[in-house]
Design a protein that fits this description.
Blueprint (H helix, E strand, L loop, with lengths): L3 H20 L12 H30 L3 H22 L8 H31 L2 H17 L12 H22 L4
Length: about 190
C-alpha cells in the first residue's frame, strides 16, 4: 500500500508538470507547444479530484492528529477555496482570450504556494504523529476518494468532510455524466 505522502507527492508532481507546460518557468504560455486548452482542462479535473480527496480525508487527519492542526487546515482550506474559484473560471476560459493567461498565472502562483505550504509546514508535522499503518490507510482513502471525486471545482460546496462525502459523491456523478456527454477528459 502506498502511504499518504507518496500519493500526495505524486499529485503535486503531476500538477507542477501541468503548470510548467502552461506557464513554463514564470509567465503565461497560451502559445506554448502542445494543447494549452487541453492541459488546462486536465489541470482542472485533476486538481478538483485531488482537493476533494484532501478535504474529505487529509485535512481531517491533520485536525485530529496534529497540535495546531485546526489552524493549518483552516489556512489550507482558505487557499484551496481560492484555488477552486480560479479553476472554475479557468475551465470556462479559452487560450488567447487574455483572461486565460491571467487565470493560469494566478493559479500557478497560488498552487505552487499551496504545495509548498503542505509539503514544508504540514507534512513534517503529520508524518511525526502517523504510524506507517495509519499513513498507508490514509493513502488508500485518498486514492479511492480521488478516483471517485468530482472533475470540476465546486467552490460553493459545503466544506465539512461529512457533507463533502455525500455532496461530493453526487457532484462527482453529475460531473462524470457531463464529461461523458461532452467528451471532456477523453
Amino acid at each position: 500500500m502506498t502511504d499518504a505522502f507518496s500519493v500526495l507527492k505524486a499529485d503535486h508532481t503531476e500538477v507542477e508538470t501541468m503548470l510548467t507546460r502552461l506557464v513554463g518557468g514564470s509567465g503565461p504560455a497560451s502559445g506554448s507547444a502542445g494543447d494549452p486548452a487541453g492541459t488546462a482542462q486536465e489541470l482542472v479535473m485533476e486538481e478538483s479530484r485531488h482537493e476533494a480527496a484532501e478535504e474529505m480525508y487529509f485535512w481531517p487527519a491533520v485536525q485530529e492528529k496534529v497540535a495546531g492542526g485546526d489552524r493549518l487546515a483552516d489556512e489550507a482550506e482558505r487557499q484551496e477555496g481560492e484555488g477552486k474559484r480560479v479553476l472554475d473560471e479557468l475551465r470556462k476560459a479559452k487560450p488567447g482570450d487574455g483572461r486565460f493567461d491571467e487565470l493560469v498565472t494566478a493559479f500557478a502562483s497560488a498552487g505552487r504556494a499551496h504545495i509548498a505550504f503542505e509539503e514544508e509546514q504540514v507534512w513534517p508535522k503529520l508524518r511525526a504523529v502517523l504510524s506507517p499503518q495509519e499513513s498507508a490507510e490514509l493513502g488508500q482513502e485518498l486514492t479511492t476518494a480521488k478516483q471517485a471525486g468530482p472533475t470540476r471545482p465546486h467552490p460553493n460546496a459545503p466544506d465539512s468532510p461529512g457533507a463533502l462525502k455525500t455532496a461530493g459523491a453526487a457532484a462527482a456523478m453529475v460531473d462524470k455524466a457531463r464529461d461523458a456527454v461532452t467528451g471532456r477528459g477523453n
